[in-house]
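F.,

This is the one I mentioned.
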């Protein structure tokens, strides 16, 4: 469900909105490393969480 994500993309974790916007650092299989503004670096298991793409104008 997160196969489209690439390093540099901005995302949100809908299960942890308090983390704010994060930047994808890497995606290896279902493991996605994201650096969130409010929570720092987090490793997300993409089998259980569908990250939401953020489009900034």
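My design for it:
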């Amino acid at each position: 469900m997160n196969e489209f994500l690439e390093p540099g993309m901005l995302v949100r974790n809908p299960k942890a909105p308090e983390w704010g916007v994060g930047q994808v650092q890497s995606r290896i299989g279902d493991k996605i490393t994201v650096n969130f503004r409010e929570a720092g670096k987090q490793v997300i298991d993409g089998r259980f969480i569908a990250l939401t793409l953020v489009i900034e104008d």
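The chain has one domain: 10-53.

Talk soon.
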